Amino acid sequence: MSTTSRGVFITFEGLDGTGKTTQMRRLAERLRAVGRDVFESAEPGGTPIGQQIRRILLDHRNHELCATAEMLLMFAARAQNVDQWILPALAAGKIVLSDRFTDSTLAYQGVARGLGADVVLDVDRIACRGLVPDLTVCLDIDPVAGLARAHSRNREQSGVETRLDEQDLEFYRRVREGYRQIASDEPGRVKLVDGSGTVEEIEGAVWECVRGAVGLE
Predict the structure, then answer these.
(1) Assign residue 42 a region: left if phi > 0, alpha if psi is -120 to 50, beta otherwise?
(2) What is the mean pLDDT of the chain?
(3) Beta bridge partners of 192
């Protein structure tokens, strides 16, 4: 089915610490400045129900959460987000920007956790019902630098949502390779952007990826 025929669905992906959240917000501001109707979302979370699931997923005390349960909780939050907010926004003709979507689950749980792409995509078909981003911007950064940024952010925020940031370096190397493989498999949809530059440099590169997808060539 065509779920994005009226709106445009753009997702941002990458390791924690790449700056994707900042870049998504900057893109939203830029699109609104030229008159586009933009809806922003984030995962895990998005909806009020998704926020409750997020607390379970990211609470550093939940170290016994197994990989399969982690994946299913991610998709539970995503399914609610798709039905409650994303599909209605697309049907209304909006540009939907999402901080993470199924590619995150492919990279983190499918590759880094070892569950495999087939398992992830089987659940995706149930939870997302065929919804695929029109464009995915994946910020690529060395895992050492990304982890340093994530840990610095966590110290500043003094929160408990740090469980996924507490994995070892090899885990994040596997995640990065997972993202690179997705980009290699789907070059038309997934655009790798160097995340090591300045905020302004990255914003410019993101805009070059996005403007054609939203009719602003």
Answers:
(1) beta
(2) 91
(3) 138
Express each pLDDT in 142-192 by its tens digit.
999 878 777 666 566 556 567 676 788 999 999 999 999 999 999 999 999
- Which two structure tokens, joined as six digits, stand for 29? 């501001």
Task: Kindly report the backbone phi and psi dihedral angles of residue 213, in degrees, each rounded to the nearest multiple of 5, phi listed first.
Answer: -65, -25
- Asked if 162 and 58 count as a contact pair (C-beta separation under 8 A), the reply is yes
Asked whether 80 and 47 are in contact (CB, 8 A), the reply is: yes
Domains and CATH numbers, the chain: 8-210 (3.40.50.300)
Residue 134, judged by CB atoms within 10 A of its CB (0-12, 13-18, 19+), counts as middle
Query: What one-character-per-residue DSSP string does the chain give?
Result: --SSSSSEEEEEEE-TTS-HHHHHHHHHHHHHHTT--EEEEESS-SSHHHHHHHHHHHBTT-TT--HHHHHHHHHHHHHHHIIIIIHHHHHTTPEEEEE--HHHHIIIIIIISS--HHHHHHHHHHHTTT---SEEEEEE--HHHHHHHHHHHHHHHT-SB-TGGGS-HHHHHHHHHHHHHHHHH-TTTEEEEETTS-HHHHHHHHHHHHTTTTT--
* C-alpha to C-alpha distance for 125 and 59, rounded to whole angstroms: 27
